[in-house]
Specification:
With about 300 residues, the chain is of the alpha+beta class. It has two domains: about 90 residues, 2-Layer Sandwich (Phosphorylase Kinase, domain 1), CATH 3.30.200; about 200 residues, Aminoglycoside phosphotransferase (APH), C-terminal lobe (Aminoglycoside 3'-phosphotransferase, Chain: A, domain 2), CATH 3.90.1200. It is about 40% helix and about 15% strand. Strands 1-2-3-5-4 form a five-stranded antiparallel β-sheet, sandwiched between helices. The chain has a three-stranded antiparallel β-sheet with strand order 6-8-9, covered by helices on one side. A two-stranded antiparallel sheet has the order 7-10. Helix 5 runs antiparallel to helix 6. The radius of gyration is 20 Å and the shape is globular.
Length: about 300
């Protein structure tokens, strides 16, 4: 699968006038009245908060890239909405999607309640409970039939074992290059290349695949800021198909990942092959942390030593 490449990084990126935003929203919600705020993370989309419960999400021109797509997000959310009521997960609901005369692609969505976990300070028990619920949610998402995603033609993915190996290997090789060319500190007894060899050789030849959110990390996981209760998951625009363990690769803090795995396996234990892929991904995350996050390097080093001992 190709890497993220921005197609027009120098494009003009204006914030839309309230009148324009409301005109787009009223194509699908005729009673839309007022733009309350404009929010953005610096990523591919800018969002406009409308009234009490709507979000107009607009593709930012200079952030346009092939692997991110509002149409893909709409498709994914519609697949989730079609699930039986007892299997549905808390995600935004699509009200409308289209393009404006100005060349603007947009989606009108319901607004997720709560706040991004990244913005909330929770007690450890509340955080672990929220992450366990995230794990349960991801397991239900991964149970979606994969055929519609493949047949859609808009959801890219890793459809072979070699694709999966490449996705796991690339960040390790990137960090090895950073150590060589940028002089990043690396004092571990094994080189990153040696670690990559051990991690990749441990991978089982698995064909397990699922439709993935891509990045269900703290910025996209929403909770009630008062109680810590998990309220939902947003932003499916980077979705792709691959091994489901890739979904939680960024959750490498031991307490966090244990909580997510516990929730994920509540409906049934994952296979040893699944855990082998997950373990390789945690090795990747520890290497990345050691190379790029000095304040967490010692903890990551201990975790890496433990993971390597299990191979």
């Amino acid at each position: 699968m190709p890497r993220h490449v921005y197609l027009q990084p120098d494009a003009v990126d204006p914030i839309l006038l309230d009148e324009t935003v409301l005109a787009l929203a009223r194509r699908h919600a005729v009673d839309a009245q007022r733009v309350l705020a404009v929010e953005e993370s610096g990523g591919e989309a800018r969002t406009y908060l409308i009234d009490d419960g709507l979000i107009l999400k607009v593709q930012r021109p200079q952030q346009l890239r092939p692997l991110t797509s509002l149409a893909k997000e709409v498709f994914f959310l519609q697949q989730l909405e079609a699930l039986p009521v007892n299997l549905r997960v808390p995600v935004p609901r699509v009200i409308g999607h289209g393009r404006a005369e100005l060349g603007i692609e947009y989606t009108l969505l319901t607004r997720m309640s709560g706040q991004a976990l990244r913005r909330c300070v929770l007690t450890p028990p509340a955080r672990q409970a929220a992450l366990a619920e995230l794990g349960r949610t991801l397991r239900r998402i991964h149970a979606l039939p994969i055929e519609p995603f493949i047949e859609s033609g808009i959801v890219p993915g890793d459809l072979t074992f070699m694709d999966t190996m490449t996705r796991i290997a690339e960040p390790l090789l990137d960090r090895a290059r950073d150590v060589r060319e940028r002089g990043l500190a690396w004092t571990f007894p094994l080189t990153i290349e040696q670690i990559a060899g051990r991690a990749l050789s441990s991978l089982p030849h698995t064909q397990e695949r699922a439709a993935l959110h891509s990045n269900p990390f703290e910025e996209h996981t929403f909770v009630d800021p008062e109680t810590g209760t998990f309220t939902g998951l947003i932003d499916f625009g980077d979705a792709y198909i691959s091994h489901p363990a890739l979904e939680i690769r960024r959750w490498n803090h031991p307490d966090d990942r244990d909580a997510i795995l516990a929730g994920y396996q509540e409906s049934g234990r994952v296979s040893d092959d699944w855990l082998a892929v997950w373990r390789a991904l945690m090795i990747v995350a520890d290497v990345d942390t050691m190379a790029r996050v000095p304040e967490r390097a010692d903890a990551a080093r201990q975790d890496l030593e433990s993971l390597l001992s299990e191979l």
